[in-house]
């Protein structure tokens, strides 16, 4: 007889915009702490832009849609963030 295992799933998250208002400031503070670990200033800049892009209200959180939203159709920016 095979025993069925119960699989736990992640709890449902029901966040509203006001629930995460302070997260952007906290994320910026986090970036300030760790950005010196990037050797090049371009890496420091684009890592911050990537984190900023994660907070955009858009269905896809991949690099190209983020850059298009934040910087327009700039092929150099897309490559830089990647």
From TrEMBL:
Protein name stated in the entry: Uncharacterized protein
Organismal lineage: Bacteria, Pseudomonadati, Nitrospinota/Tectimicrobiota group, Candidatus Tectimicrobiota, Candidatus Entotheonellia
